[in-house]
Design brief:
Strand content: 25-35%
Number of helices: 1
Radius of gyration: 19 Å
Number of strands: 13
Largest sheet: 7 strands, antiparallel
CATH architecture: Sandwich
Oligomer: single chain
CATH class: Mainly Beta
Order of helices and strands: HEEEEEEEEEEEEE
CATH superfamily: Galactose-binding domain-like
CATH topology: Jelly Rolls
């Protein structure tokens, strides 16, 4: 309880950096995502997070995504083992903030994640004009220049209301999470739900936030902050696991250009979908550290096969540069992917309250003929 209270206070001050929870309600995504597992890291004292935040019951029920079994472990995201061990909740008093996201026992929550009825699509891929792509990202740095095909999503976050709880979900962003035991075996999925904006409610929210002041001329005034879920998994699971080598928590924040109700069409076969984005390291106390790993991902899921993952290209973002840098990741759409779901976004894998924040901006998802 004491350890959980420390991390609760720590992450309550994350309005500038972001923090999120399994936000309930809204249209549940199309079946969760089966994330990757991985063995829990060991050794060392816990990062600056402490134990998982408080939060009463995490999320508001509903069935957790329509995926049935949401994937089965596999390797631990990008980068091998996830998260450190040792005693959790290092970090002393976690900055100002009064009673940070109070809520009874730490990480209490029964079954995490909410989401209304499983498989509801929401407006996936909302926010970008579907016209021609133009140059990738602002300033040409996110996937550098030239024409990039038709835009499935385009977002620089500058027009979003940073104080609105639904700022990211209004722009089509979704969130999901998975819990893995100390051997990397899948424990449970938290469902798929509208991506929270932690800036609007730092005491109760995790996963993602619209933040200010981290951009340069090419990024503008607002950026996307992505991090782990510190409010899941009950009093002795996830970040609260008291026994080394510890459980791990996977958090995903993503777009669904093609969802359960609007699947990959035959017209997309023979096209290459490319994910352009810019990323920068968070150098503050909540920036990714310890044994936490992160990656950008593209994923196709087959709803006719229990939402099995059929493609999953990734790009490691664990050690982002100090300055904004452009990256890209691509997936060729072949005939076997027709009728499936496409997810594109960012993942973190962490344990024992270790920090996990990365900054992203100028996200562009395009489709163009496969060379």
């Amino acid at each position: 309880m004491k350890r959980a209270t420390l991390i609760t206070i720590l992450f309550a001050t994350l309005a500038v950096y972001g923090c999120s929870s399994e936000d309930g309600d809204g249209a549940a995504g199309s079946g969760g995502t089966a994330g990757s597992g991985g063995s829990a890291g060991s050794g060392g004292t816990a990062g600056s997070g402490g134990s998982a935040g408080s939060g009463g019951t995490a999320g508001s029920g509903g069935s957790a995504g329509s995926g049935g079994t949401a994937g089965s472990g596999g390797s631990a995201g990008s980068g091998g083992s996830a998260g450190a061990g040792g005693s959790a909740g290092a970090g002393g008093s976690a900055g100002a903030g009064g009673s940070a996201g109070a809520g009874g026992s730490a990480g209490a929550g029964g079954s995490a994640g909410a989401g209304g009825s499983a498989g509801a699509g929401g407006s996936a891929g909302a926010g970008g004009s579907a016209g021609a792509g133009g140059s990738a990202g602002a300033g040409g740095s996110a996937g550098a220049g030239g024409s990039v095909g038709d835009a499935l999503y385009r977002g620089n976050f500058n027009s979003l209301d940073a104080q609105s709880p639904s700022a990211l979900s209004d722009d089509g962003w979704l969130a999901s999470g998975n819990q893995f035991d100390s051997d990397g075996n899948f424990v449970g999925n938290f469902g798929t739900f509208p991506a929270p904006n932690a800036t609007s409610d730092p005491g109760n929210l995790f996963y993602s936030a619209v933040i200010e002041g981290q951009g340069g001329p090419a990024q503008g005034g607002q950026q996307l902050s992505v991090f782990n879920d510190y409010n899941c998994c009950g009093a002795s699971g996830g970040h609260n696991d008291p026994t080394a080598p510890y459980e791990t928590v996977e958090a995903l924040v993503f777009q669904e250009p093609y969802n359960f109700d609007d699947r990959i069409p035959v017209e997309l076969v023979g096209q290459t979908v490319t994910f352009f984005f810019e990323g920068k390291k968070d150098t503050g106390p909540f920036g990714l550290g310890g044994n936490t790993t992160a990656q950008a991902f593209m994923k196709t899921l087959d709803p006719d096969a229990g939402f099995a993952t059929t493609r999953n290209p990734t790009l490691d973002t664990t050690n982002l540069p100090l300055d904004w840098t452009g990256f890209s990741l691509s997936l060729d759409i072949t005939s076997d992917l027709e009728g499936q779901i496409l997810q594109v976004g960012f993942q973190t894998l962490a344990q024992q309250g270790e920090p996990s924040t990365n900054f992203y901006d100028n996200v562009l998802i395009t489709a163009s003929p496969t060379p």
